[in-house]
Write a structure and sequence with these properties.
The chain has about 220 residues and is an alpha/beta fold. It has one domain: Rossmann fold (3-Layer(aba) Sandwich), CATH 3.40.50. It is built from 8 helices and 6 strands, in the order βαβαβαβααβαβαα. Strands 3-2-1-4-5-6 form a 6-stranded parallel β-sheet. α3 packs parallel to α5. The chain is globular. Bound molecules: adenosine-5'-triphosphate. Adenosine-5'-triphosphate (ATP) binds next to α1, β4 and α7.
Amino acid sequence: MAKSETKPAIGIFGGTFDPVHFGHLRTALDVVEALGLAQLRLIPCAIPPHRVEPVANAAVRRLMLELAIKNHPKLMVDDRELAREGPSYTVDTLLSLREDFVDNPLFVLMGTDAFASLTSWSRWQQIIELAHIVVMQRAEEPLSLSAELDEWYQQHQAKAGDEKLSAGKVWSVPVTQIGISATQIREALQQQRDVRYLLPDAVIRLIEQLGLYPPQADER
Ligand code: ATP
């Protein structure tokens, strides 16, 4: 795997962001700071492989992200998954990113739950050839892994200096525990409750303007 002394390190944070909230944004920044990333790309998925379809459409989810991170120098929205047909597999996104960032260190962020299910992801072993994996570790969420994944994790655990590699290691990064979920926000909106301080005001304004997540909508 390539040594990359000079190229800036890039983080990749995929999700449905339906809507984006402070749980996403604060933990993204925690990782930027912990690993000294030059930029973090938030990538809204078109069709998530592991879950039901989002409520808000892709263009609106992208717009909510753009409003949420406006003027932050290190956060940006990357809409490459929205241009692709079919399910948004991480490995395909990484293959696409590698065309743009040939030997930059790439870091894919995921929660402990996502990491625990890694072996069910499409071409999961290829993911670590293309990028590092960052497991965002919330204080009250211990890693609970299958024997197979635990062994694989031990083999790939990062050590000091590995951040110069372009890919290949698993990093466990402590992040702020913020118990907010998009599901909770959609439910609150559908019950016409106040969602301030759970997500950026600009995103709330857009939700109101467009009438997203209306009271009579079916929560899935
Ligand atoms: P939903 O409630 O609709 O499932 P969500 O809030 O979990 O949505 P997603 O867009 O599915 O948001 O999440 C994208 C990524 O963000 C996932 O890896 C998830 O683990 C992570 N994430 C979601 N909420 C938080 C939070 N409060 N703190 C840290 N990470 C979070």
